[in-house]
Amino acid sequence: MGPDEPRRPDNEGPRHPRDDDADFIFNDPAFVDDDDPRTTGPGFAESASYSDGPAYSPDAGFGDPQYSDPQYSDEPRATGSARVGGSGYVPPEFTEDELAGLGTDESGLPTGPRRVLPLEDEPSTLVARYLFPTERYRGEWKRHWIHLTTPLLVGTGVTFLLGYLSGYLTRQNIGGLTTAAVLLWFGVMGWVGWEVADWYFDRFILTNKRVMVVNGIVTRKVAMMPLLRVTDMKYTQSPLGRVLNYGTFVLESAGQDQALREVKHLPNPNELYLRVVEEMYEPQAVEARLGRDGEAVDDA
Predict the structure, then answer these.
(1) How many Å apart are CA 124 and CA 198, to the nearest integer?
(2) Which of 26, 91, 234, 242 shows a CA-CA span of 20 to 30 A to 253?
(3) Segments making up each domain of the chain, as ranges
(4) Phi, psi for 197 (deg, rounded to 5)
(5) What pLDDT score does 186 carry?
(6) Quick one: DSSP state of residue 25?
């Protein structure tokens, strides 16, 4: 051991450094082995481990042959300078057809294929009594006229049948049965009128808090479901429903017992579906549209 060499105690060396050495670090002389090739070379030089030049070539990361074609030479992805410098960003371009669904007309309503009709201003007197003061009214709908198919068909069929029967009984001079046939016809027509009146007073209501169904003439029934509890909603349309534009709504909630689950024969199901979904997920957009419509009315 020379005078300039560090002292190496017994059993201490590059392979067995002493654990209780307070000065033990990676450059501890006891840890460095001059004869070990792993501790020599440019990777362990005392100077900077990286050169001052660029770490990557200008086209690093863009070696895809499709970008080496001359037709892509003007695009910012053709070289690495667009990302390194940050000045080669090109904003996306959209065609008029792509932006058509985002436009609005003079009244501020969307002009795309999924247009939502204007919201009603005030509820009818039939519905207003079921809304609390801080609730915001969005709209009400009667069921589609297809809901009256059964009573109308029954009334029409009974009219023709009893009319023919009354004529036949009159020719046979059976006056008592003729009177009974006429009374039966009045009874059927009364039932048809009741069904039409029940259809008129039957309403599907949407607010910013809930959906409701109000029906009944003598006995009123009010069923509702808070929008916050709606976990799933769908509507179905039969082939006839697609032609006549009506459908059946099905609402699912987290509760076991549901006062409102299936509502049949609602008109314009797609437009109504958009309104309910927008009220559930984008209530701010509804408020903004209402505010814009109110400003337009004030300006007029």
Answers:
(1) 16
(2) 242
(3) 148-200, 202-287
(4) -65, -40
(5) 94
(6) S
In angstroms, the CA 42 to CA 138 distance is 75
Which CA distances in Å does 154 have to 124, 162, 188, 190, 256? 31, 12, 8, 12, 37
What confidence tier does 71 reach under pLDDT thresholds 50, 70, 90?
Answer: low
Q: What is the DSSP letter of 140?
A: E
Closest CA to 279 of 112, 104, 116: 116
Residues 150-208 have pLDDT tens digits of 999 999 999 999 988 888 888 887 777 888 888 999 999 999 999 999 999 999 999 99
Question: Per mean pLDDT, which range of 151-155, 214-218, 257-261 is the poorest?
Answer: 257-261
More confident call, 199 vs 31: 199
* Residue 142, Cβ density class (10 Å: 0-12 exposed, 13-18 middle, ≥19 buried): middle
| Structural fold of domain 202-287 | PH-domain like (2.30.29)
The span from the CA of 10 to the CA of 18, in Å, is: 10
How far apart CA 147 and CA 50 sit, in angstroms, is 80
CA angle 113, 117, 122 (to 5 degrees): 170
- On whether the CB atoms of residues 161 and 237 are closer than 8 A, the answer is no
